[in-house]
Amino acid sequence: MLKEFQEFISKGNVMDLAVGVIIGAAFGKIVTSLVDDIIMPFIGALGGVDFSNYFIGLSHNVTATNLVDARKQGAVFAYGSFVTQVINFLIMAFIIFLMVKAVNNLRKRLEREKPAAAAAPPPADVQLLTEIRDLLAKR
């Protein structure tokens, strides 16, 4: 069983997937920071709107005016956090779209710049038939 596991883990696909998950997690933290620390405060400053503290208390005990304290008091419906996460997702999806588009453009450019491969010589039987045809045509 250990040998099978070693074969499984040494396949390139598994390692590529592991690297992708690790980079994706780090990239997710960057986008979360971008949304939480840069975009949302900017939107809040422009319109006086801070999505992070938009919530509805689901119990009578919730009297706090900010989300952190409200969660300590009881259950809350934190729709502002959801709006922030949706914006986070849209930004991440757009950035990934731009990255995929850039890679596709690079591939297309490399395909155009690649010199055309020399045509493979025809098989021996086709070559022989071509020579026979040319000899018959000379007669």
What does this structure look like?
With 139 residues, this protein is mainly alpha-helical. It has five helices and two strands; from the N terminus they run ααβαβαα. The chain has helices spanning 2-10, 12-47, 67-73, 79-113, 124-138, and strands at residues 56-57, 76-77. A two-stranded antiparallel ribbon has the order 1-2. The chain is elongated, with a radius of gyration of 31 Å. It starts with a helix and ends with a helix.
First CA to last CA: what distance?
72 Å
Structural class: mainly alpha
Radius of gyration: 31 Å
Task: Determine the strand fraction and express it as a percent band.
Answer: under 5%
- Poorly predicted regions are none
**Kindly state the mean pLDDT as a whole number?**
83
Strand order of the largest sheet: 1-2
Q: Total helix count?
A: 5
Count of strand segments: 2
* Morphology: elongated
Taken in chain order, the helices and strands follow as: HHEHEHH
Largest sheet: 2 strands, antiparallel
